[in-house]
Design goal:
A five-stranded mixed β-sheet has the order 3-2-1-4-5, sandwiched between helices. Strands 8-7-6-9-10 form a five-stranded mixed β-sheet, sandwiched between helices. It has ten helices and ten strands. It has helices at residues 35-38, 46-67, 85-102, 111-117, 161-171, 178-186, 211-221, 229-258, 273-280, 302-310, and strands at residues 4-9, 14-21, 25-33, 75-81, 106-110, 129-134, 139-146, 149-155, 262-266, 288-291. Residues 333-337 have low confidence and may be disordered. It has two domains: 4-118 and 296-336, 2-Layer Sandwich (Nucleotidyltransferase, domain 5); 126-293, Nucleotidyltransferase, domain 5 (2-Layer Sandwich), CATH 3.30.420.40. The radius of gyration is 20 Å and the shape is globular. The two termini are 20 Å apart. The chain has 337 residues and is an alpha/beta fold.
């Protein structure tokens, strides 16, 4: 019987392992971020990411086993996509080697499903619900009817929200990763100082678009002097407010369209304080909002281990022979491994 699951995450620039127990919850997790490695390049360099995963995984496994008393898992859950193909292959190869040595099954996990289920790490069961998956690579609204039963309601037509944050931060010279730096700068700014657009809110539907907002931000930033601290803070706050309001109003629209009263917020941008505050306000409208703690909004292995544990029935027929996919839709075949 599958009780303890080792989760492995290596889809991009975080290397993570976690041990999850179905009876006792998360037993331990370790995570290494490659932020400092990629910062000089202003973004993730895929080859460097893959090589660092190779170096880090054995060390992190030793650290995790020391923290959890050397407990052996009954199965391994590993991110099999979507993500950087080289980085994914490193994690999957590591999982396959461990599984062969321990004679246990490997469960391929969809990275976005991991994010979707991350709020369950807090011991809640939020389904059925509308889910906002919002990160550097994805922005989408999904109707979650149950485990593996997902209906795409809307998605971004161009940039993801997290990507827009990072690009705006880069225009301001804030470095990498830009999103958190821009959010920090926005704390002291006036969100009404710049009249930036709220894309696609003036038309029906649940799709997103952030390219026009990014262009408007660039034009607004041109006259702002690099040494004008207050105007820079105002610009950052105005940009953040535009993104947050867009996400908030689309979530409300999705809830009204589906008639659901529960909202799940997942993905790295879910750690943004302004977004968490805005969406938390839906509670006054009778909406239950479930957001993972900030550490589990960004890429982590705890969500992968949890997803593997919930999908333990897949382990009965699991083999090490499954595809690794750089692109992998959440709906349709996404939950079948």
């Amino acid at each position: 019987m599958i009780e303890r699951v080792l989760g492995i995450e290596s889809s991009c620039d975080e290397t993570g392992l976690a041990l999850y127990d179905r009876q006792h919850g998360l037993l331990g997790e370790v995570l290494f971020s490659q932020t400092a490695l990629h910062a000089p390049y202003g973004g993730v360099v895929p080859e460097l990411a893959s090589r660092d995963h190779v170096r880090r995984l054995p060390l992190l496994l030793d650290e995790l086993r020391a923290r959890t008393g050397g407990q052996r898992p009954d199965a391994i859950a590993v991110t099999a996509g979507p993500g950087l193909i080289g980085a994914l292959l490193v994690g999957v190869s590591f999982a396959r080697g461990l599984a062969m040595g321990w004679n246990i099954p490997v469960i391929p996990v969809h990275h976005l499903e991991g994010h979707l289920l991350a709020p369950l790490l807090g011991g809640v069961d939020p389904f059925p619900a509308v889910a906002l998956l919002v990160s550097g690579g994805h922005t989408m609204l999904v109707e979650v009817r149950g485990l593996g039963d997902y209906l795409l309601l809307g998605e971004t037509l161009d940039d993801a929200a997290g990507e827009a944050f990072d690009k705006a931060a880069k225009m301001m010279g804030l470095g990498y990763p830009g999103g958190p730096a821009l959010a920090a700068l926005a704390v002291d700014g006036n969100a009404q100082a710049f009249g930036l657009p709220r894309p696609l809110l003036d038309r029906p539907g649940l799709d997103f678009s952030f390219s026009g907002l990014k262009t408007a931000f660039r034009l607004a930033s041109l006259p702002v002097a690099s040494d004008d601290a207050q105007r820079r803070a105002d610009l950052a706050a105005s940009f953040q407010a535009a993104v947050v309001e867009t996400l908030f109003r689309k979530c409300r629209r999705a809830l009204e369209q589906t008639g659901l009263k529960r909202l799940i917020v997942a993905g790295g941008v879910g750690a943004n304080r302004a977004l968490r505050t805005a969406l938390g306000g839906l509670a006054t409208e009778g909406i239950a909002v479930f957001i993972a703690d900030p550490a589990h909004c960004t890429d982590n292995a705890a969500m992968i281990a949890l997803t593997g544990a919930l999908r333990r029935e897949l382990a009965q027929a699991a083999t090490a022979d499954f595809p690794v996919r750089a692109r992998w839709p959440l709906t349709g075949q996404a939950t079948n491994g």
